[in-house]
Amino acid sequence: MSTAARFRRLVTAVTYPFKYQVYISKSQDVALNLSIEDYLFRKSHPESTVLFLYINKPCIVIGRNQNPWLEVDHALLSQGSSSHLLDDRDDGQRYWKDRVKLIRRRSGGGTVFHDLGNLNFSVICPSAVFNRDRYAEVVVRAIRRDNPRARVNGRHDIVLDPGEVIPTSDQPDPKDTHRTKFVFGDGPLVPRKVSGSAYKLVRNRALHHGTCLCDTPNISTISQYLQSPARPFLKARGVESVRSPIANISGQRQFPPLTAQTLQNHIIEAFVQEHNFKMPKMPPSLSATLFAEGLYENDECASGLVDGRLLEIPEIAAGVRELESPEYLYGQTPQFILSTHPCAEDDRARPPLPEWFPPSARVYLKIKSGIIIASKISTSDHVGTATAEEMAFDGILKGKKVAEIESFGDLLGKSSSSSAAYRGDDVCRVSKWLDLMLGKTSGGRVEP
Questions:
Q1: For residue 220, what pLDDT is reported?
Q2: What's the pLDDT band for 10 if we cut at 50, 70, 90?
Q3: Measured between alpha carbons, how far is 159 from 26 in angstroms, rounded to an integer?
Q4: To which H or E segment does residue 275 belong?
Q5: What are 209's strand-pairing partners?
Q6: What is the DSSP code string of 400-413?
Q7: 139 CB-side CA count, 13 A
Q8: Which residue in 33, 109, 343, 394 is a FRET match for 288, CA 20 to 30 A apart?
Q9: Which pLDDT band holds residue 281 (cuts at 50, 70, 90)?
């Protein structure tokens, strides 16, 4: 079948009133997979229930209403991933050579890390029958084929209970997906999160998508990328991530390892069991596998593999361009304040500033949609001089897009203020602090 014919069949299948649709992506590109998911969400028949599964190369995905400078260590991202992320569970000498991609998705929720040891699932269904637990429960049943510690918690996440087996008389029904037969509590008994979810609802359609940490080799590294040095100094209007202890599903050594590919098959089987339908039959030569090239259909279901050739669909290509644009990643950021000291908008106590930071200096930035709309930066403890510095620096910074600033030192060093010129070393140190907070790696360097 020609590529053009395959596109036509897929477009027809998505919009046709199949009761169920099941697709696996062969692509590992996060922007493409999220755009395919959005296409399925927007174009699939309103009565159809769609399961879409995909695995991405290393990337960080923030929620629709989140602040990238609050959620992520940009300096670590800009260094590239070659010294941080493993690409093989058993070979510590092999690394990812590509930079970790940062992207903003179209749904809400918190920030997540993806790599080849993480499986992403997405279910799209009529909004009238949607609830936040149903497909988390389906995924738990799939996980429990390899790890019986999994359950859905009160936040609709999937966690593993880490403790010993409780007495038989107190054990819940094995079919209960919200309780397990294992002890959990505080300290070392805190449940470990293995799957988080996000949602998007419109009038007729609901989207539930989530992650599954199967066997990522980067489990101890993920937190480094999700710890922004700006967090104590930044007050955001958007949604902040809820930090939770995490683990691999296959991390419990008494159970067999669970790969993302294996869990992918388990989820399909659990989804079929949940809805009690039959997957389309494939030719006998392919019957040993769940999926193969092409699109397969029966009266109830369409299923198949999708890949980068779907970029020929204009809506998907446009979606990729949008997700990869700085305007979408940074320009969608809700208003926030970055300040070295307590202020009217953020009266929290601040941690100590670096020893090299000028003791008389103060920094205040108000940023909306990624653009500096107001600033007060000074280095002098003299009121008149500090006011003159604030005016001079504000004239330079106002209207600048933060993402396009290579170095604050390059900008603030251009001030015509005589005080700023005189106090050039202090300006350099303030610039260095701003570079550290907002992930700039060039210019403004200061030796403590």
A1: 86
A2: confident
A3: 27
A4: helix 260-275
A5: 122, 198
A6: -BGGG-S-HHHHHT
A7: 35
A8: 33
A9: confident
Run of H or E residues at 327: helix 326-329
The residue-averaged pLDDT of 87-104 equals: 59
Q: Nearest to residue 446, comparing CAs of 432, 427, 426?
A: 432
Looking at residues 277-283, what average pLDDT do you find?
82
Residue 212 token pair: 């599954």
Q: Is 371 helix (H, G, I), strand (E, B) or coil?
A: strand
pTM for the complete prediction? 0.89
The CA distances from residue 430 to 188, 363, 379, 414, 448, in Å, are 41, 8, 8, 14, 12
190 CB-side CA count, 13 A: 10
Per the CB < 8 A criterion, the answer to whether 420 and 379 are in contact is yes
Coil, strand, or helix at residue 52? strand
Number of other CB atoms surrounding residue 72 within 10 Å: 23
CA atoms of 397 and 356, how far apart (whole Å): 23
Contact (Cβ atoms closer than 8 angstroms) between residue 216 and residue 117: yes
Dig out the tokens for 77 from the structure: 């991202």
- What type of residue sits at position 326? P
Cα-Cα-Cα-Cα dihedral sign, residues 320, 323, 326, 331: positive
Other C-beta atoms closer than 10 Å to the C-beta of 369 total 13
Q: Are 398 and 375 in contact (CB under 8 A)?
A: yes
